[in-house]
Amino acid sequence: MDSIPLTLVAAEADQGVRVDVFLRDRLLGCSRAILRREIEKGHVLRNGRPIRKGDLLRAGDRIDLRALCLVEETPIAPDPSGPLVVLLETPDLVVVSKEAGLPTLPKNESDTRALACRLVARYPELLRVGPPFEAGLLHRLDTETSGLLAAARTRESYDALRDQWRWRRVEKVYLALVEGEARGSFTMLMPIAHHPKSRKKMAVSKKGRSAETRCRSLITARRSSLVLVHLREGRRHQIRVHLASAGHPVRNDTLYSKRGTRGGRLMLHALRLRFRLCEGGERFDVVDPLPAGFVEIVERELGPNAVRALRIRPRGGGA
Q1: 149 in a structural domain
Q2: Is there a domain that residue 76 lies in?
Q3: Do residues 181 and 306 share a domain?
Q4: Among 98, 30, 275, CA closest to 169
Q5: Counting CB atoms within 10 angstroms of each CB, which of 33, 113, 191, 305 has the fewest?
Q6: Residue 142 falls in the annotated catalytic set
Q7: CA gap 276, 282 in Å, rounded
Q8: Which residue, 70, 94, 128, sits at the end of a domain?
Q9: Lowest mean pLDDT among 55-64, 156-165, 309-318
């Protein structure tokens, strides 16, 4: 059984956050069950002392994971029967399309309803790439969001691509149907932190981490607008929080829209990724065609030719 020693320092934005929530967000792909087990065994220390899962953080707290134990069996259970739409495949990486409603990562070792489970079934080498439980994935999408996800197939390409993501050299473009008349172009520079009252939500906060979202309205109507979104950092729920703060929450967003859902999926799609494998390396430009369910709602709100006018190719079937 392996172990990973880690030291994490709580920032101002983490003040008042439960320690298990803090760890879940930092250790991407590590299940709640494993975190709970490690905390109960006393393997997680705060400022040198064991913690409880419900303890709240203070800025400057040092969190030490002396022995984050990893099970020897496959940490992600493969799902060979689940469909996997591959849009780009090279010896170094793979870019796939995630459907709306499918989690990126499994909840635990026995859960197979996640995109990562489908990935490792076709590309078992991903189990040996990057941190455990992440299947070589370089980023995440919310369960309700559809679109592009990229994974590295070798340790070398993982390190190189992580640098591209870390240095903000990856162009991430989303398409969102939002509430109200969103006109022109607008940029939101608002830091994001955990919501003070809800574990499921994020919020704009001066104590949060920096976040920049650039938007351009493509089609505007009285009730809805179609917006092209360029994401800089990729904080959790960044687009959804920023657009809601601007008065234009994403359609059918049950977390951030006061109107809730009007039926159908969350209207957010990760449309395009542009990146290089390394500095000066080959440039990749991948576009994920719009799912049929997304197109159906857009055309119901904005007219039958809305998507066709944008020259964005729809894809048959799916949400």
Answers
A1: yes
A2: no
A3: yes
A4: 275
A5: 305
A6: yes
A7: 6
A8: 70
A9: 309-318
Q: How many domains does the chain have?
A: 3
Whether residue 77 is contained in a domain is answered as no
**Phi and psi torsions of 212, nearest 5°:** -125, 130
Q: Between residues 128 and 97, which one has the greater pLDDT?
A: 97
Distance (Å, rounded) from C-alpha 241 to C-alpha 254?
12
What residue numbers bound the domain in which 254 lies?
A: 171-276+283-310
Find the Cα–Cα–Cα–Cα dihedral 34, 138, 155, 83, rounded to 10°.
80
Q: Closest Cα partner for 226 from 171, 189, 271?
A: 271
Q: What CATH number does residue 197 fall under?
A: 3.30.2350.10
Asked if residue 294 belongs to a domain, the reply is yes
Q: What is the pLDDT of residues 55-96, one digit of tens each?
A: 889 999 988 876 566 443 457 899 999 999 999 999 999 999
CATH of the domain at 55: 3.10.290.10
Which entry of 61, 142, 253, 288 is annotated as an active-site residue?
142
> What are the φ/ψ torsions at residue 33 (nearest 5 degrees)?
-60, -45
Q: What pLDDT, on the 0 to 100 scale, is given for residue 280? A: 77
Instruction: For residues 151 and 116, give the distance between their C-alpha atoms in angstroms, rounded to a whole number.
Output: 10
> Hey, CA dihedral for 111, 113, 114, 116, is it positive or negative?
positive
